[in-house]
Each structure stands twice: as C-alpha cells, then as structure tokens.
Amino acid sequence: MIDLGISKLALIGVVALVVIGPERLPKVARMAGTLLGRAQRYINEVKSEVSREIELEELRKMQKDMQDAASNVEQTVRENMSDVESGFNSAWDDPATVSQYDANPLASPPTPDQAAVKAKDFRRKKLARTSAIPAWYKHQHGRRTRVISGAARVAKFRPAGMARKSFH
C-alpha cells in the first residue's frame, strides 16, 4: 500500500495548487473526494458480496450434509422396520418358532398370583405415601385451600367472649 505521510500530502497539495491554480483547486478536491468515496463504497460492496457468497456456499454444504444424514437415518429406520416386519410375519405365520419377541413379558398375561402380589405391593406403597405424614399435620401446615383476608382470620380465631366493637 502507498505510504503517505503528512509531509508527502503537503507536497502533493502544493504541487496541485501550483499546477491547477487556486480557483479550480476546490472543485478538483471535491471531485477527487467524491471519486475516492465511490471507490471505497464499491470496494466495500465487493467485499460484502464475496463474504455473502462464501456464507452461502457454507450453508449449501451444510444443507447437503444434513440431507445425507437424514437419508442415512431414513435408510436405517427402513431397514429396522423391515426386520421387525419380517420377524412379526414369521411369528404370525409360524407361532411355534421362538424369536426375540417371545421374551417380552407383556406378550402373556400375568398369573393371578403375580397380579395379587403386584396389587398388594402397589397398595403398600400408596399407603406409605399417603400416610407417612399425619392428616392433622397436613391440614395445619399444608397449603391453604381457601385464602381469606387477615381480618377474616382474626374474626375466625377470636375467642367467643370478645365481641368486636363497632364505632358508629
């Protein structure tokens, strides 16, 4: 890049003043400034356009990568579904064959003893959950079900002998 110091700029200004003359120097200086501004704007536009093109190319590459990944996932899902479907069809056609799907405990209903044990365990856990804290403690320290004002609370818990006196 051109190295222009203050001394070189002053020398250029003196030469321009002598060559162009004092009458036309302001017009020429304005025109030179306008041309320099246009050149800077053009350079900035070119830089921004190049950066936009680079970003657009990166986005296209990312889109292609995502489409490839999506197609791979889709292919894997299709393969797994076809495996499951073939296993299901083979089990449906020949129920005597043992496959990986026969190990599922949900395939056969539980025996009455298993159901009774499970129900008893459920009742025991529910009882422990609900009765671990006494009901009176829950009502006294739990969440309020009805919100009442402070004056209503005072009136509610005021002893019976103390009547509220009104001043009319």
From TrEMBL:
Keywords: Cell inner membrane, Cell membrane, Coiled coil, Membrane, Protein transport, Translocation, Transmembrane, Transmembrane helix, Transport
Biological-process GO terms, alphabetical: protein transport by the Tat complex
Subcellular location: Cell membrane; Membrane
Domain of life of the native organism: Bacteria
Coiled coil ranges: 52-79
Major localization listed first in the record, in broad terms: membrane
Transmembrane among keywords: yes
A Gene Ontology term for the protein's cellular component: TAT protein transport complex
This protein's record includes keyword Disulfide bond: no
Membrane protein topology class: Single-pass membrane protein
Gene Ontology molecular function, alphabetical: protein transmembrane transporter activity
Transmembrane segments: none
Similarity comment: Belongs to the TatB family.
Subunit structure: The Tat system comprises two distinct complexes: a TatABC complex, containing multiple copies of TatA, TatB and TatC subunits, and a separate TatA complex, containing only TatA subunits. Substrates initially bind to the TatABC complex, which probably triggers association of the separate TatA complex to form the active translocon.
Function summary: Part of the twin-arginine translocation (Tat) system that transports large folded proteins containing a characteristic twin-arginine motif in their signal peptide across membranes. Together with TatC, TatB is part of a receptor directly interacting with Tat signal peptides. TatB may form an oligomeric binding site that transiently accommodates folded Tat precursor proteins before their translocation.
PANTHER family per record: SEC-INDEPENDENT PROTEIN TRANSLOCASE PROTEIN TATA, CHLOROPLASTIC
Protein name, entry field: Sec-independent protein translocase protein TatB
Species of origin: Noviherbaspirillum humi
Taxonomic lineage: Bacteria, Pseudomonadati, Pseudomonadota, Betaproteobacteria, Burkholderiales
